[in-house]
Protein 1
Amino acid sequence: MFAGFMIRAWEAATIVAVVAGVVGFFTVTRGSAFAAHALPNGAFAGAAGASLIGVNTIVGLGVFSLLGALTISALGRRARRDVATALVIVMMLGLGALFLSMTTEYAPQIYSLLFGEVLGVANNELLPTAAIGAGCIAAIVILYRPLLLSSVMTDVAEARGISPRRMELAFLVVVALTTTMAVPVVGSLLIFSLLIGPAAAARSLANTPHGAMAASIVIAVATVWAAIALSYATNLPIGFFVGTISATAYAAAQAWNAWRHAHPGIADAVAAGRAPVVTTSP
C-alpha cells in the first residue's frame, strides 16, 4: 500500500482534498453546487479536445474551465444564474461529445478523464497539482472576508461596496482552477463529490465559518484516504468509495444535527467533553 506509486497517490489525493475542502465550503455556502458541477464538465470537454489535437490535457482543462467560469458569469448578468449554468453544461457536453467522436484514444484514457487516475499520478504531475492548489488557497485567503460577506449577507456586502458580480466571477475562477488541478487526479465527475459532500456535512457539524471550513478539510481528506485504502484492499474503483463515503458523511452529519436539536442538553455536554447528566423523574 505504500509503494512509490501509492505514495504519489496519497500525496496527490491529499492536496486535492484540502483544496476541495476549502473551496467546497464556499461552494455550499454560496449555493453554487450547480456551477461546481458545470465547470468540471467543461473541463472534461477541454481535456478531450486537447487530447484530440495532441496538446497537454492540463492546458485544455485550464482553458475550458476558465471559459466556462467567464461564460457563466457573463450570462448570469442577463439571465437567471441556474439557467446560465445549465446553458454552459449543455454547450460543454456537446463539445465533449464532438471531441470524443473524433478522437482515436482508447477507452481507458477517456475513462481516466471522467473518473481520474489517482493511482497513476506521475512524479512530474505532483508539482503542478501542488502549485495550482496553493494558488487556489491563496486566492481564498485574499478574498476571504468580502467573499464570505457576499455569500451570507449580500445586501450588507453591497452596502459596503463589495460587488456581488465581481465576487461571483472571482469565485468561479477559483472553482475553475480547482477543477484544473483535480480532474487529472479524481476526474471530472468525482471532484463534484469532494466539493459538495464534505462541505455540506461540515456545515451541520460546526457553528462558525472557520470551524466549518476546518471540518470540511478533515472530512475531505478522510474521504480520499479511506477511498484509496478500500480500493487497494478490494480492487474496486476509488470513485465508488469517494462518492459513497461523501454521501454517508453528509447523512451522518444530518442525523447528528437532528439528534442534537432533539437533545440539546446531552449534545452540548458531549461537545464540551463532559459526561451528560441524566435525570429521572420520581
Protein 2
Amino acid sequence: MNNRYDFVYLFDCKDGNPNGDPDAANSPRIDPQDMHGLVSDVCLKRKIRDYVLKVGGAGHDIFVQTKSPLNPRIAEVCKEADLPDFKKGDGKWDTDKAKGRSQKDIRTLQSLLCKRYYDVRTFGAVMSTGPNAGQIRGPVQITFSRSIDAILPLDLCITRVTDTDKEEGEMGRKILIPYGLYRCHGFISAHLATQTGFNDADLELFWQALTQMFDHDRSASRGTMSPQKLVVFKHASALGNAPAHKLFERVVAQRKSDVAVARSFADYDLTINRDNLPGEVEIIELL
C-alpha cells in the first residue's frame, strides 16, 4: 500500500441493542453526560472478523475467535518456524523462558502470524502470552462509535410461556433503543501496512466487510442494524496530505429541522463538503 486512508462510517440500529454493557445489565452503552449512545471498536471488529471468517480462503483465518484459546495458535506457528514453544510437561507454558525469546525470533513468528491471520495483519494483536510472539500494531484503527443524537434506552418486560422447573411461565426483560444513527471514524496507515503485510486485497475485503457484515450477524436482541454511509478519504501519499480531523469535518449528518425525533436514516440530512479539498486527497463514497 502506498496511500493513507481515513474514513467516516455511519450505521444505525432500530428497535434493538447495538452493543450492551455487561457492567450495566447489558444495557446499551451510553454517555451519561449527554445521553448519546456508544458502540465499542471491539464490537465492530468482532463483526468484521466473523465476516472474514465466512469468506474463508488462504490468509483469511482469524486469530481472535470466540472461546478459542490464543496460545495454541501461537504454538502452531512456533512449530512451523522450528522454534520452541516453551510448553512444559504439565501442559502449561514456561513464561520465564518465553519472555526471554529474542526479538529476531519474535519478528519471525509475527511474520508468519500476519501471513496466516487476517485480523493480526489488519488490527494487530497482543501475542505476548504463552509461547510469546510479542505485540504488533495493525494499520487499521477505528474509534468508538457515537450516536448523532441522544438515545432513549427502553427496558421492556417480556413473558415466556414455556415452563422449566416451575409450573407457571416466567417473566423476562429486553433492553433496546427505538432508533440510533451512529458515527465511527477510522484510520489506515500505509507504513504499518508494510510491517504487517496488509495489502490492497485486504483493504478491499475490509471495505466489503463494513458494507455487508450486519447482514451476517442478525440477532433479535440487536434489532435491525444497517450500514448507511461509508465515506473514504484516500491520500496521494503514505504519510497523508491533510489532517484526518479536518477531513472528517467535511462529512456532516444532521437531523432534519422538521423532525422532532429521528426514527430512520431518512430523518437525517447528510452533506459532504468538497469545496477547497486538497488536490492530493480523493473522496470515495462506498455507500
